[in-house]
Amino acid sequence: ALRREKKEPTMENMFAIATRYFDVFKEDIVMLNIKTPQFMPRASEHVQGMIAYVETLLDKDYAYKTSDGIYFDTAKFPNYGILGGSSSEEHSRIGASKEKRSPKDFALWKFNTEMGWDAPWGKGFPGWHIECTAMATRYLGKTFDIHTGGIDHIAIHHNNEIAQAEAANNKPYARYWLHNEFITIDGKRIGKSEGNAITLRQLIDRGVNPLAYRYWLLTGHYRSPVNFTWEALRAAQTAFTRAQKIFADLK
Prior knowledge:
The structure is a single chain. This protein is an alpha/beta fold. Helix content is 39%, strand content 15%. It has 7 helices and 9 strands; from the N terminus they run H-H-E-E-E-E-H-E-H-E-E-E-H-H-E-H. It has helices at 11-31, 47-59, 128-140, 154-169, 200-205, 210-218, 230-250; strands spanning 63-65, 69-72, 106-111, 124-126, 144-150, 174-180, 183-185, 188-189, 226-228. The strands form 3 sheets. A 4-stranded antiparallel beta sheet has the order 1-2-3-4. Strands 8-7-9 form a 3-stranded mixed beta sheet. Helix 6 (210-218) packs across helix 7. The protein is globular, with a radius of gyration of 21 Å.
């Protein structure tokens, strides 16, 4: 995001751009009539909790230090990959490291001498996975009922969350996992490289009620992929308007 907006990679700029997207998200959920969560934590406000998790995992010998960070040792956790879908080839998002004991081992902390937060093992940034576990257990408890996310989170992100949480706390993490399928646009995946993302404001500019979009989403099962087209959305708006009229006539 910083590169797209041609901004310097500083902590201040990262926080500013995150705040802007966070504010847009909060506005969107109001327009979609989604109940606002009791807590909406930000990762930057919970770094100390993440550091505490990493310390626990190091103390319990589930983690080890390399020249570029602290890694979780997946071989020490027998149930690693319990959700399925995991393979060695998929664990190269942050690049190969010759110091990793296994390709599946994942970063709990990445060193950075120029930016980040101070930690007992060195300055840097928390790993992507430890952020979610630290915040989820902070507000929901060490064991909670439902964890949601996209199907793309199953293989790596959610398997990693389970491993680090249960290794640290010696308790089940989430009792139920609900994973939603993707939305495609005209049969194509939504992505930065495709440049085909549509915002809620663009729908409004074209005369679409945000609740009509929500109505369209509810016509499909959350575990089934759905394909967005303007024709489908217009049909959903017509059906939504008709339902509103019928409801109004019942009063």
